[in-house]
Specification:
2 copies of one chain form a homodimer.
Chain A lengths: L4 H15 L8 H8 L3 H13 L3 E4 L5 E4 L8 H9 L22 H16 L3 H5 L2 H14 L2 H12 L1
Helix pairs in contact in A: 1-2, 1-3, 1-4
Chain A binds a DNA duplex (30 and 30 nucleotides) through helix 1 and helix 3.
Chain lengths: 161, 161
DNA sequence: ATAGTAGCCTAGTAAATTAGTCGGAATAAT
DNA sequence: ATTATTCCGACTAATTTACTAGGCTACTAT
């Protein structure tokens, strides 16, 4: 099991889409700016999200991405699964062949842990996140920063040095 | 966050120690054989476990390792922490500086997930594992295999090819 | 004393993964 | 036609994993 920036980026980007729903397709350039994620990297992640039928793309100018399902029908676990291949904590992919064909001493423990994590994350939808206070606060801050083009340039210069 | 064989090996090895408690120090060679983990790799893991005061070592012939605390007083979370540095799911190490000094859109979600995982794993002690049916079954199987030296050689030859 | 058994320590390494970059299509709106 | 965007493939530096190799140190049994 691994949860790195890859999965975190995917969830963040999907949440960004959910927050700006109803404004037509959202371009990856917008998400890149707002969330501070490399555009090319986002492209790779969205290729996987699209293959997993989580988003729908519109090409050409004014194009971008939209959620393929309703916000309430997409949960965090499947977003991570889409880019990461599973939040499984076992080494044997739950097959039980961890120690030369047989289950290892701790196999069931990792199965339990996997269930725990999956249960937790699959119980949280994008709609749930949109309604959270902390998410709304951060989203508002990001709106304010986007409205100040000078600050944007200053911060990108600072991060480049 | 990452949970790989590293953390799994550590927990498995610690559980092996817990299962064979009361028989004096257990050598890493024994654990290596029983659990199918490379001896040199075990040495590296146990160096960390020792630094974190989870095990106590006895050098020289007949030496090995013993749990430093009672089985009921060592939980799975701290074993993983010892070799892995934390089961933290955030990218900022819970500092909240994920996006140029400020919290990112999904910071709190990862904090919640971290708490969830830590809560689950810290609630399971080595004693709990020792008493589980599935663990006892696997432990008995490992005892039987160890009692058949020919089979051991045959399986090691097979895995080497 | 000394041989042998263990733990201890450092260094190296192949393979995989991460988090990107780069360049160039294909597509659609103006 | 130009431009904005998704799409696609190849490449890469840095990091991590899961090891191996080899030598040293402490201890015990003989």
């Amino acid at each position: 099991m691994r949860l790195t920036t890859k999965g975190r980026y995917a969830v963040t980007a999907m949440l960004d889409l959910a927050l700006h729903e109803g404004k037509g397709p959202i371009s990856l350039a917008d998400i890149s700016e707002r969330q501070g994620i490399s555009l090319s990297y986002l492209e790779q992640l969205f290729a996987k999200l699209r293959r997993n039928e989580l988003v729908h793309s519109v090409r050409g100018p004014g194009g971008g991405y939209q959620l393929k399902r309703e916000r309430g029908e997409i949960n965090v676990a499947e977003v991570i699964d889409a880019v990461n291949e599973s939040v499984d904590a076992t080494g044997c992919n739950k097959t039980g062949s961890c120690q030369s064909g047989e289950v290892c001493l701790t196999h069931h423990l990792w199965c339990d842990l996997s269930d725990q994590i999956h249960g937790f994350l699959s119980g949280i939808s994008l709609a749930d996140l949109v309604h959270r206070h902390d998410v709304q606060e951060v989203a508002e801050r990001q709106q304010r920063v986007m409205a100040q083009p000078e600050k944007l340039i200053a911060s990108s210069v600072a991060s480049a040095s």
